[in-house]
Amino acid sequence: MKRLALCLLAISFNAIAIDDTCYAPSPNATALGEEYYALDREITLNRETETALRDVLQGLTGKWQGSLTETSCTGPDASPIRKVTLLKTTADLTLSSKGELRIKARKRGHTDNVERGESITLFIREAIYHFSNNDNTLNSSEKIRVASNNASRLLETISLLSYRDGTLRLTVAYYSNGVYVQTLDFTLNRH
After folding, report:
1. Considering just the CA atoms, what is the radius of gyration of the chain in Å?
2. Count of CA atoms in the C-beta half-sphere (13 A) of 153
3. What 8-state DSSP symbol labels residue 99?
4. Closest Cα to residue 83, out of 48, 114, 109?
5. Sheet-wide strand order for 115-122
6. What is the pTM of this model?
7. Residue spans of alpha helices (H) in 15-77
8. 2-190 topology per CATH
9. Nearest to 6 by CA among 167, 132, 136
10. pLDDT digits (tens, 9 = 90+) for 72-119
11. Taking the CB of residue 94, how many other CB atoms lie within 10 A of it?
């Protein structure tokens, strides 16, 4: 894990803050304006950064357990409903052959006994258009276009990942067409 911390320090740029106010604009949408909606802005990580990122993510693979706070927004723009749910979770982190971090989480509410699944893939190289590290926190912004019901929407994922003192913190924020809709905030320890 010492190597993991050193690799995190080796990758350095700027971090992005997440505003979890319902339907708040993505910080990237605000910064880029109309360019935000172009999908040809992905970046190519240089060899040194790619190797360091793969080493960091490889060090995180395995079984984890802890807590998950889900924050979601639904309803009309004028009066959105913000729902926060606290859950217990176990997560299996793996690395794909392309170096993407795959998270298979099982989550269970504190008051009910219902178990649900969650699958997340992060650090998709073709979708990354911002990547940085600040204070041992990897930060990635990824965009893809998702088709649904004869229409499409732009789905942006901003992830912040940090590992300190045996605890993995992972925050994944989702933006649909440039506005905030959901956050998954994991706090995990090795299982």
Report:
1. 17
2. 12
3. S
4. 109
5. 115-122, 101-109, 81-95, 62-74, 179-190, 167-176, 151-164, 137-148, 128-134
6. 0.88
7. 27-32, 47-60
8. Lipocalin (2.40.128)
9. 136
10. 999 999 999 999 999 999 999 999 999 999 999 999 987 877 899 999
11. 14
- Strand (E) or helix (H) holding 2: helix 2-10
Could you say which DSSP state residue 36 is in?
A: G
Distance CA 174, CA 159 (A): 9
Q: Which of 34, 99, 101 is nearest to 61 (CA)?
A: 101
Q: Where are the domains of the chain?
A: 2-190
- The number of CA neighbours under 13 Å toward the Cβ of 137 is 14
What is the rounded CA–CA span in Å between residue 106 and residue 93? Answer: 12
| Residue 175, CB-side half-sphere exposure with 13 Å CA sphere | 26
Length of the chain equals 191
Handedness of CA 122, 170, 153, 32 (dihedral sign): negative
Coil, helix or strand for 118? strand
| Tokens standing for residue 105 | 């989480």
Which residue, among 100, 93, 89, has the nearest Cα to 62 in the 3D structure?
93
